[in-house]
Amino acid sequence: MATEVQVPVLSAKDFASDQDVRWCPGCGDYAILNQVRRVLAAAGATREKTVFVSGIGCSSRFPYYMSTYGFHSIHGRAPAIATGIKLANPDLNVWIVTGDGDGLSIGGNHLLHTLRRNVNVKILLFNNRIYGLTKGQYSPTSEEGKKTKSSPFGTIELPVTPLSIALAAEASFVARAVDVDKNLGDVLQAAAEHKGSAFVEIYQDCNIFNHLAYQYATDKAAKEDHILYLEHGKPLVFGKNRDKGIRFDGAHKPQVVELGKGIKEDDLIFHDEADENLAFLLSRLSYPQFPEPLGVFYRVRDDCYEDLLEGQIKSAVAARGQGGLAELFESSDNYKV
């Protein structure tokens, strides 16, 4: 009689490696690391089937601090390497950790194609709006006019919007959270459960080179008036007293309104995670003109790249046979020297 193998239930601490965590004291990366460990434990993940892949940057030290498999790869190429890992072994639970500099500058091309292919990987983009590892140069997400070591007179270009880029690339899951906010765990759990490319932008504080960039979204006394938690099927309501909302005006443009002055919740925009147009509109709302949305913007189910590729291989083998290397080498023109 076969003996049933008991798989041990892992805790968040079981996903911590023996390496000293070496980020600057107070860095937002610590909070993200702790939440990721908790989510993996809650999801019943195993260390031998989990892989973290990173590029270059402060956030890219992440694999060292996880007691899983991991690759600290090269600048911007984490999505390409993670795709190869997923294709080689689709059973693996693959996560990508990148930053606004690593993922949206040199790595932008690889990020776009991973999202459009819907490879079943989870992508965490830490956005601190600065280059931290190389000591404070402006990044693709730095605000216009930002004065840094590489832009002493202020940046002259507009910042990119990561969520808008992800949606334009046909990502099947797009979300945003803040490193120290209560909804980060919920967003990470939703991403972990999603089958397909899950893109999560995380506002992260670099307390050395861009401290308090997101103070409006973290200050306990004021943040409720500056952020908007998205809930599927619920109206866009926000504010410390939940007395504000967002509706369309006569020109179908979003506007902030106060409830109770002839305006009811039924008059507001209702969030629909399957509405790509609404998700894009929400991705364009930004502080201070609007409260900044947090949560799941867009979520749909679609075929995953690795499943389609496996099906294509099976069809080819069924139609042409297994084949072999010798046959492959001799199948085209050969030259004798």
In brief, what are we looking at here?
The protein is an alpha/beta fold and 337 residues long. The protein contains 10 helices and 11 strands. The model has no long low-confidence stretch (mean pLDDT 94).
Report what the structure shows.
The chain is α/β, with parallel strands linked by helices and 337 residues long. The protein has helices at residues 29-42, 78-88, 100-106, 108-117, 162-168, 184-193, 215-218, 276-283, 305-320, 325-329, and strands at residues 50-54, 69-72, 93-99, 122-127, 173-178, 198-203, 227-229, 237-238, 244-248, 254-258, 292-299. An 8-stranded mixed beta sheet has the order 2-1-3-4-6-5-11-7, sandwiched between helices. Helix 1 (29-42) crosses helix 6 (184-193), helix 3 packs across helix 4 (108-117) and helix 5 runs antiparallel to helix 8.
Considering the chains and any ligands shown, give keywords for the structure:
single chain, eight-stranded mixed sheet, 337 residues, alpha/beta, Rossmann fold, 27% helix, three-stranded antiparallel sheet
Name the helix and strand elements from N-terminus to C-terminus, one letter apiece: HEEHEHHEHEHEHEEEEHEHH
CATH architecture of the domain at 12-213 and 303-307: 3-Layer(aba) Sandwich
CATH class of the domain at 12-213 and 303-307: Alpha Beta
CATH topology of the domain at 12-213 and 303-307: Rossmann fold
**Share of helix among residues?**
25-40%
Secondary structure class reads alpha/beta
What is the end-to-end distance? Answer: 62 Å
Low-confidence blocks of residues: none
Radius of gyration: 22 Å
| Mean pLDDT across every amino acid position | 94
Annotation field: number of helices = 10
Looking at CATH, the homologous superfamily of the domain at 12-213 and 303-307 is Thiamin diphosphate (ThDP)-binding fold, Pyr/PP domains
Strand content: 15-25%
| Main beta sheet | 8 strands, mixed
> What is the strand arrangement across the widest sheet?
2-1-3-4-6-5-11-7
Shape: globular
By DSSP, the count of extended strands is 11
